[in-house]
Design a protein that fits this description.
Radius of gyration: 18 Å
Strand content: 5-15%
Structural class: alpha/beta
Number of strands: 5
Number of helices: 10
CATH topology: Rossmann fold
CATH class: Alpha Beta
Length: 245
């Protein structure tokens, strides 16, 4: 996998947890699978999603994998702090999965394909270890679908800096709109796409803080140094764009 555009800082870890916590109800109201299932979480990172889905499926067993050993250490600490005991954390590459064919009842991945240069190849590798009657959950975002009022040219330009940098690193920040054709090309059957819109206004201060400020704006602010050094925007414009967001 190419460079992770957001990096592995404490700042990014806080952002990932804010994202998972603020969107838990929206994304995981139906993240419940058959009791006794063996579930693979591919690209678990620091365990931000693991801490939500594993407790909802206490009678199932999870194998949470990631390529970054430091992220796995953080994920283990999160699980231990929350007394989550149905997850095995393992360092592994999605393109070289250390599991036998048709091993898992379910596969879960969240915000992973957007960082992979060849998502079809990744899906095919995952499909190998999924049982014939198993299923897969794929969650992705689409940064090109961000709209706000009042509108801001500089805020939109700052968002596009993130999209461009992710593309430069081999990813696709707008992959959410492509999930159906990707899964279809990988020959998954009975594909259902559920578009889950995040709408935020002042009537929901928790989402204002948790998502708008600490997730989305924090994500854009996190690439400021690289965007400015590559002359995608100057520092004054970028700072104003972030303020507008």
């Amino acid at each position: 996998m190419n460079k992770y555009v957001h990096g592995y800082s404490a700042y990014e870890a806080n952002r990932l947890h804010a994202q998972a916590d603020s969107l838990a109800d929206l994304l995981h109201s139906d993240s419940v699978w058959d009791e006794g299932s063996i579930i693979l979480e591919a690209g678990c990172g620091i365990g931000a999603q693991t801490k939500i889905i594993a407790p909802k499926n206490r009678k199932s067993r999870f194998f949470a994998i990631d390529i970054a050993s430091e992220s796995l250490k953080q994920a283990k600490k999160v699980a231990e702090a929350k007394n989550i005991d149905n997850v095995v954390f393992q360092e592994a590459d999605i393109f070289q999965l250390p599991f036998e064919d048709e091993h898992f009842d379910h596969i879960f991945l969240s915000y992973l394909l957007e960082h992979i240069p060849n998502p079809i190849r990744a899906l095919n590798k995952l499909k190998r270890v999924l049982k014939k009657n198993g299923n897969i959950t794929v969650i992705e975002g689409d940064h090109g679908s961000a709209y706000f009022h009042p509108d801001s040219e500089l805020a939109n330009k700052a968002i596009q800096c993130q999209v461009k940098l992710q593309k430069k690193n081999g990813g696709d920040a707008n992959i959410g709109r492509k999930l159906y054709p990707l899964l279809e090309e990988a020959k998954f059957g009975k594909i259902t796409v559920s578009a889950r819109q995040v709408y935020v206004d002042d009537s929901n201060p928790d989402l204002v803080e948790g998502f708008t400020r600490n997730t989305f704006t924090a994500m854009i602010n996190g690439i400021s140094e690289e965007a400015i050094s590559m002359k995608l925007m100057n520092s004054k414009e970028f700072e104003q764009g972030v303020r507008d967001l």
